[in-house]
Amino acid sequence: MSNTIFNTLSTTGSTNTILQLLRYAGLSDVLNGTGPYTFFVPSDTVLATSLPQILSNIPRLQSILKYHVVTGKYSIASLLTMNGKTLPTLNGQPINVTVSNGRVLLNGNTSITNPDVPASNGIIQVINGLLVPSNLPPAPGPGPSPGPSPGPSPNPVPGPAPTPQPNLSWLWWLILLVIIVLIVYFIINA
After folding, report:
1. Contact at 8 Å (CB) between 113 and 69?
2. For labelling, which of 19, 97, 101, 109 has a CA lying 20 to 30 Å from the CA of 67?
3. Which domains are seen in the chain, by residue range?
4. For residue 124, what are the contacts with CB-CB under 8 A and spacing of at least 6?
């Protein structure tokens, strides 16, 4: 088995969640491809706080994951020379590179915590944040807004006041998180 970026991720120990997300989004083949690629990988700790944001739907997840994959192989040494430049991503939106006090910052606030993990088709840079592209598909909403309301009826009949409905969106996220944990559990123990 080749030590591609995807296969190398399974040996780092802090990137199990990204492996599951890549499989779930159908993108594992990309990082098993010929490359060369640079994959900016958020650690499991970062992803744990970002799961609701990135799991709202598959197109959003794919867009975010592709935004972390850069065409070309960029070591930390090469990134340190790229102040003010951008990196081309598979998402189509570039990542901005800033160098400050000897540190590489991606999009102004995400830094590399574990640099230059080698792979046969590129390099892995573990980062301390989630990179979110500006062209991210919108999160699914409650549906289309209703059209204009008709005019008042000639003899309106007052009805009971509407009862406020509780906000149960947290329950949806909790169910989604439980499903993800179960998927990861069954994949790991398969």
Report:
1. no
2. 101
3. 5-137+172-188 (2.30.180.10)
4. 5, 8, 9, 12, 38, 39, 41, 116, 117, 118
